[in-house]
Amino acid sequence: MRRTGFRSITVHPRPGSPRLPRPASLPAALPARLASALRRLRPVLLLPLLPALLGAAPAHGPDAGGALAAARGAVSGHGAWAGDGGGSSWTFTAPADGWYGFEARGEGSGHVVTLTDADSGGVASSSRWRGGGRALIHAKAGSSHAVSVDAPAAGGFTLRWSPSAAPVRLRPAGRLADGGLDARGAPVGLRRPGDLAFGGGRLFLASGLGLTAFERDAATGGLAVVGHVDSDLSGSSLAWDGAGDRVVAHDCGAWRSFPADGGGPGELAVPGDPGGCGRLLLDAAGGLVHRIGDAALDTFALEADGSLRFEGTTPVRGLRGAAVGGPGRLYAAGDGGLLLVERDRQTGRFAGTPLDVDVEAPAWGRVPLAHDAGTGRLLAVDAGGARWLAPGRDGAPARLPAADAMRGGFEGCAFAAVRPGSTVDVFCAGAVLSSGPDGGAHVSLLPDGGAPVGAAASPDGQHVYVSTRAGELLTFERALPSAADDHGGTQATA
Predict the structure, then answer these.
(1) 3-class secondary-structure state, position 220
(2) Please, which residues have CB within 8 angstroms of residue 390's CB and are 6 or more apart in sequence?
(3) Is 428 helix (H, G, I), strand (E, B) or coil?
(4) What is the pLDDT of residues 422-464, one digit of tens each?
(5) Of 419, 424, 317, whose CA–CA distance to 380 is shortest?
(6) Which H or E run contains 18?
């Protein structure tokens, strides 16, 4: 066999340069002698021939570096052919004014989508800001943005884009402290503020001074004191009984009733109550009140005469949180995972059914849960972060993309509240996480790092109120941001 005159050459690729795939076989259409000769050549000598032998590199979408002009769509890319840094890009031109979301998924995880303004060259949004694979922009009709995808490894991925709802936010709208002035200029006493409850168009606050009723300005969220009853309620949990037009307060087995018209407190008889401490959870549609303790939840029925009747106790080892999941249904988080608590049809007693969802016990103890009746999903916040759950369905539930957006992770999370539009606000030590139905999230920092003691949302979903250990009552506006406010979910200081 005649030897070629080529010398052996060893090539050391530059760090970070893409590795070229070695073909497993050559096209069958090549003449046999040519194919045999090519197999004897060093791979480095095939570089100029690769496009002809293997075909052109996969195009990133309809065209490599092509234009994206539709309101929604999907294009494909490939990390192995992504050039410097393993990325690829397109140009998106908005067909109409509005919000647009971009997300890349494929082989591996951690795809980063970045949108750059075509005119200024500045970064308009990045999925890194939202802690996940989704980037959001508000674009004017005809404006253009460069859309780039940083692929974590070789392999295919798909970039999808579509119109999106505006990102969720909480804006600071008010702040009351002991001795401060309310919306009408009257002084307010806030010693050891505790639990909160909405009812009858008013916000009720339990504190070391008693029960205070506030009238709320629906437009601004401002609060004005309209009633007060002296009584030490700093350790009490509140629940609004709409049928009885009253506030029910509970403190370790001691029950009291406060009429909405401002009458003095009355002792509330609860025959058969085994006693114990815990916070109250009202199931208005089911006519039930649950007491969430440390190792069990007690269920009481609301009677027509205003009394409470003890229904039974459901043991839950390491009970850390609960949420009403519909009339007569309750989700509970314990050391054994997530439970569905409901009345047994045969015995008539409440019992817990384990769901195939683990709960990572946090150091701060509580696991806030919130059920969204619109979608049937459940939000849980534990030591592993925040995640949306679909109880009863197969497969592991997906965590929120922004679970790592809060600095230092989640700490001291105590409450979660659902607002209209399937958005949930989670109140933690020093911060509030707001998550929308698309999984995107935004973090608002609480003033002075205050830890939440109580939280309540207005019935119209426009405002949420938080009492803190710093002795303050905070008001947040649940309004959608303007286009100028958004940077894909960056942190905002309250």
Answers:
(1) coil
(2) 376, 377, 378, 397
(3) strand
(4) 678 888 887 787 776 555 566 677 766 578 899 998 888 888 8
(5) 424
(6) none
